[in-house]
Design a protein that fits this description.
The chain has 694 residues and is an alpha/beta fold. Helices cover 40% and strands 17% of the residues. The chain contains 25 helices and 22 strands.
């Protein structure tokens, strides 16, 4: 989160922003104004406040020494390099440059006094520094009086230039009062926070005796203050937008229990306790006069679809339409098939909308939605396109919500705003969100969690198998299919190219058709025409296909209880949540199920870590927590991050205690100190605090 503080009204020219080239370089670092410079904090520090005698330099540490060059030569073995001998009275040290300019050969001549900063290591000639930071000095040149900050930099902007700009910005901001305290005294005392000005000054210019470890680990009280302020700004922003939404009006969709009870009685299973709990929360929200904004999360196979169906029925019972939007045609169609089976017997007309529909079918669906003939519309992103008009939309349900951007979600919700009332919104995710992420980036939503699986779901056994043992895997697939079971063979994910991914799928299908001439094999991928895709999936579900070769399009929503074996090729290329989702396609019946992760060596460190996590864990929340730790929140959030203030300083795992404290402080400030809350938001977000509309 970059600051656009109203406190900093210094002109761009005064702030060192003169010249378009300079502005562009600073923009690459996310610096647009004076206060951005104040919050451009160091990555690390160099200690130029001490000098070590050459004879006493500690091993494996970056240190500073000073001495006179007693020998300097350009050597050509094994390659061209500049080698100098530096002597300080206690010993001799070699400095070696593999890349150097003629000006350096001149500057580092015999008799020159130099100050070197670097790591001393044993070398061919003796103790040496390779490419140290080297300055020509005079005898008695004073040492630095503070640790030297090393800032995030960009091409064409040296550390010295950044340091100069920041020193100027700090002096001007301090003079202008921009670093003054904006938090109430009670909050500072209660959370034992250091002052804001002192923290900023300390981090830019730490004294020589500052703890290098606390600074490096970012646990020093000065760092904790900055991180607290950043988290507080995010919490304030999210809570304000949460309040803003609750101030709008929505249709009160009260419980009638006629259609909902009819559906419950027709089902072949009973709802779990967790499903009943989340349904009660959703039901209560729908009955309120302000728009529901709830995230329903549950692990793969926990039964979110039936909860969505019951929520849709509550809207329909009140004379309002419901819409269910899914990110892929396969998933949207799964919902359409499943909900048609449940709701058509109750007399409810369902409209189906997708991008690949024939014009005639599409126009019929659009007419049904516009007149209210269809009380439920199911589809892909085609649902929020301009020509789609609802008669009276009361509830928008978005599945796998992280796959849609902010504007797409907003567009669907605005479909019901004609009447002046905003539709209720239910978002669903089978990618569980770690608690710290939910507290931070989802603080503007109410969250419901289905935290138990329906009875009868079997634990899936995960096996890691190197590609050289492919023959064993083939034997396992043949044995399983001949025993009357079904299997998936998932092709590798190729991010760079859908064409390459399709080629791989076609090749895999051809190879497996030759390998298993006795098996009925099907193929499904993203480029397959929708009718063919539907036909293949239906044949697999009915058991007419024994082995389904598929790309990752089957990641979500596919439900075939007789499929008890899955092979994932090149598992080392997959993300954790994707592997977990894919694995959730088996184990949906009573039969013991196995997921084989075929991987190719050599493995990168992160691929090895991912495979270890998916092998050791089956709980989606634990996998998500470890995934967050591996990847950080940016990637994890997907499209949601558009319009969400991202964190630069705080770490959600390491600083979970600060996040909890910031949540409490945000509520206190909004209740008791609204002016302080506004000033704090202005300091950290500026005009960006008007972000979160969805």
């Amino acid at each position: 989160m970059k600051g656009n503080s109203a406190d900093s009204s210094i002109s761009p020219v005064a702030a060192g922003f003169s010249g378009k080239a300079m502005q562009e370089k600073l923009a690459r670092l996310g610096i647009a104004n004076e206060f951005d410079l104040v919050l451009h904090l160091p990555l690390r520090y160099e200690d130029e406040t001490h000098l070590y005698p050459i004879a006493d330099v500690p091993a494996d540490r970056t240190v500073q020494v000073e001495g006179v060059i007693i020998h300097s030569a350009v050597m050509y073995r094994p390659r061209r390099q500049l080698v100098c001998q530096v002597e300080d009275g206690s010993g001799v040290l070699f400095m070696r440059f593999l890349n150097f300019y003629g000006s350096q050969v001149k500057a580092y001549s015999v008799g020159t006094r130099v100050r070197l900063l670097g790591e001393v290591r044993p070398g061919f000639f003796g103790a040496e520094m390779v490419h140290p930071k080297c300055r020509v000095v005079s005898a008695g040149t004073p040492l630095a009086d503070a640790l030297t900050p090393v800032y995030p930099a960009t091409a064409g902007l040296s550390q010295e230039a950044i340091r100069k700009l920041i020193r100027q910005a700090l002096a001007r901001s301090d003079h202008a009062g921009s670093l003054a305290e904006v938090l109430p005294v009670e909050i500072i005392k209660h959370h034992q926070l250091h002052g804001f000005r002192d923290s900023v000054m300390f981090l830019h210019q730490p004294p020589p005796d500052a703890s290098a470890i606390l600074l490096q680990e970012r646990t020093h009280p000065a760092w904790r203050r900055i991180k607290f302020d950043e988290l507080l700004a995010q919490q304030l922003s999210m809570r304000l937008h949460y309040r803003q939404r609750r101030s709008r009006s929505a249709p009160a969709l009260t419980e009638k229990n006629k259609l909902t009870n009819a559906l419950l009685q027709s089902l072949s299973f009973k709802l779990t306790g967790a499903q009943k709990k989340v349904l009660a929360e959703i039901s209560r929200d729908l009955a309120a006069v302000h728009p529901m904004q709830r995230l329903l999360q549950g692990d793969v196979g926990s039964g979110k679809t039936v909860v969505a169906a019951l929520a849709a029925l509550q809207a329909i019972e009140n004379g309002y339409q419901a819409a269910i939007m899914a990110p892929t045609e396969i998933l949207a169609e799964q919902h359409y098939q499943k909900l048609s089976g449940w709701l058509a017997p109750l007399g409810i007309t369902i409209a189906w909308l997708s991008g690949s529909q024939k014009k005639k079918q599409r126009q019929a669906a659009l007419a049904d939605i516009a007149t209210g003939g269809a009380m439920l519309a199911i589809g892909t992103h085609a649902l929020f396109q301009e020509q789609v008009e609802f008669s009276q939309l009361g509830l928008a349900i978005i599945d796998e919500q992280h796959r849609f951007g902010v504007h797409q979600r907003l567009a669907l919700r605005m479909k019901g705003a004609k009447t002046g009332a905003v539709p209720h919104q239910l978002m669903m995710s089978a990618t569980p969100i770690p608690r710290t992420l939910a507290m931070s980036y989802y603080a503007d939503l109410d969250v419901s969690v289905i935290d138990e699986l329906p009875p009868g779901r079997t634990q899936v056994v995960t096996k890691l198998v190197a590609d050289i043992r492919r023959d064993e895997v083939i034997a396992r697939v043949r044995e399983s299919c001949q025993a009357g079971k079904q299997a998936y063979w998932v092709c590798p994910l190729i991010e760079e190219s859908e064409v390459l991914q399709l080629k791989t799928a076609l090749e895999t299908y051809a190879t497996l058709t030759l390998t298993f001439p006795d098996l009925k094999i099907g193929l499904v991928h993203g480029r397959l025409p929708p009718q063919e895709k539907t036909a293949v999936m239906a044949a697999f579900k009915q058991g007419a296909i024994q082995l389904l070769v598929a790309t990752t399009v089957i990641e979500v929503g596919v439900d075939v209880p007789n499929a008890s074996l899955m092979v994932i090729e090149h598992a080392e290329r997959m993300g954790l949540s994707q592997m977990h989702q894919l694995r959730g396609r088996v184990g949906r019946g009573a039969e013991a199920s196995v997921c084989i992760l075929l991987y190719q060596k050599p493995l990168s460190a992160i691929a090895r870590e991912r495979l270890k996590i998916i092998f050791e864990h089956t709980d989606g929340f634990e996998i998500a927590r470890q995934d967050l730790h591996l990847r950080g929140p940016g990637e994890f959030l997907g499209a949601r991050q558009s319009g969400v203030p991202m964190l630069r300083f705080a770490d959600l795992e390491q600083d979970a205690d600060l996040l909890a404290a910031a949540r409490i402080a945000a509520e206190e400030m909004l209740r008791d100190h609204p002016a302080s809350a506004q000033r704090h938001l202005q300091r950290w977000l500026g005009e960006k605090s008007e972000y979160l509309r969805v």
